[in-house]
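Q: How would the structure tokens look for this protein?
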Amino acid sequence: MKISPIIKTSIWGVSYDYSAKGSIVIKKICAEENLSLQVHPRYPYLDGAQDVKHEFWWVKHAAPYAKILGGFNQDTNRAAVTEAIEYGTLDKLLNSYDVSGGEWFYTRPGTVHSLQSGCTVWEIQNDVDITYRLYDYNRKSRQLHVSEGMESLNFNSTSCSIVPRTVIAEQEYRVKAVDDCPLFSIKEITINGKLSLDRVSAGSWLIVASGQLRFNDELLLENDVCFVESECRGLISGQGVVLLVS
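A: Here is the predicted structure in token form.
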């Protein structure tokens, strides 16, 4: 079943929210300005959260100047981070990635991160909606949560760039697995023909990252998102890239 997004505009750009069903949240984020430097809780008990937040980005499009910031570029401490926030230099403590379409990034709980202007990504996460903003580029319209964020931060050096593992490579399709998340699985499937799946579990999502495909009898165009309500066999056909999340 195709899902229509809830479109939200913000001071930094536009997001398309497909989170109406299930425990997995799907968004397409178009960053026209830098997003805040933020962190998600590292411990479930903060603010009553039942779980921690695992967040993945698949880069759909990146302007030539686009970057993603994520993870400290060296081990640091509370005092150094506090000073960097005060002087507006927190980004200097972070890894800065030049990004291209098709790349993957994983923000582990407790990792400070930011999408920068010029990035369009598909965001895949579990349904935990707690974000602590540490620095917002001197924008005054939104609240910061520095003390809460400090309690959540992992101060160790951390990388956010990941490379999926190729599990199947055939003439008509290639399947890559993103192995990093303990809560759900992600497969990046490149199709040029047909792929038969013996089992697609209930609650799975299909994101058409590029191209035009069919999932069983349903036509899916680029940027369509499909939610699988009940377990089924699956036939994906056409040409493009689909992200299968379950």
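The chain has a mean pLDDT of 91.

The CA atoms of residues 62 and 169 lie 26 Å apart.

Upvote if useful.
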